[in-house]
Amino acid sequence: MKVHNVTGGAGLRLHVREWGKEDAPSILFIHGWSQNHLCWKNQYESTLAEDFRLVALDLRGHGMSDAPLEAEHYTEPQLWADDIAAVIDQLDLGSPVLVGWSYAGFIICDYLRAHGIAHVAGINFVGAATTMNKAALGTLIGPGFLDHVIGATGEDLPGNIEAIRNFVRGCTYSQLPSEVFETAICWNMAVPAKIRAALLAREVDSDDVLTALAVPVLVTHGQEDTVILPAMGRHLLALYPQATASWYAATGHAPFLEYPGRFNSELYRFACDAVELSIRRMSIGQVTHKSLF
């Protein structure tokens, strides 16, 4: 495992970690609201690391990245876009497969709108949100989030803890092992309530980005997701019907935690295909990792 400090949008320092083979195709994992890179433990400690370069960042305001409290650090789409561009460029990831969970759907679309698809082999939207406005509340974004957002963004510590505990519990359909659940509470509580609130102080409509996509897309969504409702996944698929859908029965908002074996296997196949198509698209003949495909 290697640790990097990447200079993101407007000079903010981002904490980034990587595993696997440095000269292999890259997969960039982008976590969701109030999370950090630890949520991908079942991926970066899996056999994916045998054939891919796995990279996971702590988003601005999260984990071990810089976390200024002023809202303007989190409300500008260009800053999020530039963060992802900085990780790809400064770590020389080439054209990674982007894996985005929950709020990361917004961030990936921010990146695509600002920087295009030239450095993207494919995208795996995982319980991903791409629309956030009043109309989305209750129709695309569900009670697993809405019921806890006031407590999670307030300054009352007991109320904050209770809201985060209930939010994390509601992210999965089946009960997580106690150690995993407790660790998830810890990484959620590492994010200041003001920053959680700032992330929600924007309206997002990514429909124009999704209809214009021209890279392979895998949509992974739990059928029992009450945080980002399955309707959001269907909305994404309607906008980009070329995408592949993977629906997880009896699964909540985090398929990669509830069924990591299936998730990793599907991601492996998707990433192999996406990278191969990217190589053909870019007409690159001298690729050292062709044996993967």
From TrEMBL:
Source organism, top-level taxon: Bacteria
Record GO cellular component, one term: membrane
Signal peptide: none
Pfam (any one): Abhydrolase_6
GO molecular function: hydrolase activity
InterPro entries associated with the record: AB_hydrolase_1 (IPR000073), AB_hydrolase_fold (IPR029058), AB_hydrolase_sf (IPR050266), Epox_hydrolase-like (IPR000639)
AB hydrolase-1 domain sequence ranges: 27-264
UniProt entry keywords in alphabetical sequence: Hydrolase
Name this protein carries in UniProt: Pimeloyl-ACP methyl ester carboxylesterase
